[in-house]
Amino acid sequence: MFGYRNLQTEEARRGFWLLLIATLSIGMAMAIQQNIVTNYFRDDLGLEGSQFGYITAIREIPGFLLIFVTALFYRLSLPKLTALAFVVLAVGYGFFGLSVSMWSVAPWVIISSMGYHTIHQTKFALGMSLTTESNSGKILGAFTALNNVGALFAMVLVMVIFYFEWISFRPMFVIAGAIALIGAVAIFGFPNLRDGEKDEVVADRPKMVYRKPYRFYYYLNLLDGGRQQIFFSFGLFVLVDAYGMSVWEISALLIGVRLIGIVSSTWIGGLIDRHGERAMLGFVNFGYIFALAGYALVQNVYLAAACYLVYSFIMPLSGMGSATYLRKVAIRDEIAPSLAMGVTLQHAAAIVVPISAGFILNYVGYQVPFLIACIFSSFTILVTRRLDPATQRSPARIAEDERIRASVAPSSGLVVDPADG
Predict the structure, then answer these.
(1) pLDDT tens per residue across span 272-300
(2) Contact 180, 25 (CB under 8 A)
(3) Beta bridge partners of 328
């Protein structure tokens, strides 16, 4: 089930179940918030198009600061740091409903965003610790599918609740916060693992990491930040504002997205393992151009919704592909802080782009920002053509692989392939 049968140790299997609970928790909590927040901003707070760009920029500030927050808490183990992030997310979501304007909602946007962005980078490191390098894509795909399972359940719940008007926006935010607390309790006990084996030595995480050999990972994140934040800022807004879609209709669309994700995510992760990051990330960015250009140019709600589905289907591949690439070129102790650096660079673009796009939206149609997003994807394709993890390992990673090979081969008579962890 979702890669569980491939785990070889009891500790890895226990970690799988704990991460499963946490993944379902964040999938449900974030799906509740995502389903209702656009309509909440427009209907209850009265936000307009440009303000959606501004509030997105405010939301992405914690992502930009993530590397400094991670450095501040570098003495915490990854499971404890992740549990703390779940608590922060719960507080932010729980108090969302107290807002009456853009500026009164901004503090809770920032707090919840800090929790989410921390979880976003630590969950990849925790997931990859369950298995070997050659199965990293499959395990990340499995947890993406599980995230979709939790989100799907939450979306059905939201659709039914708002269709029958049982609960308003504000109590739903409290429910989302309560669900996030479940994830905090679960992930707190996640074991310390290395390639699926219990590791008695807790990795000494550096406070901050920026390495020239990891530059292609940084480029991918910087360009992805510009592209994805345009879609995040205005994708649902266009469906709500231009096409008049209601909460339950948005929920139905997002349910379709999650159903596709449940079926396909593990398969997509396996494609990364089989075909490599260069081929798969190149393919996915051609898909982005198709979906974004279609979103900008079509004038039909069904075609626009179809473009939203296509984009959402391939979107998880970017994060999985860049993370597995990093694992192949970086040493173990630098993976988590490097993921944090990638998120920070991603949000350097994510802060500037939504504000600029929101400003542009005051003077032109929503089509222009989506065409700009196509340009980001075009540059990303050029970067993916340069990826070659076999020859781009950092000097420290090469030395680490040689130490592992030397320590295992004399005692067992085996020759160890560093690519297998």
Answers:
(1) 888 888 988 998 999 999 888 888 888 88
(2) yes
(3) none
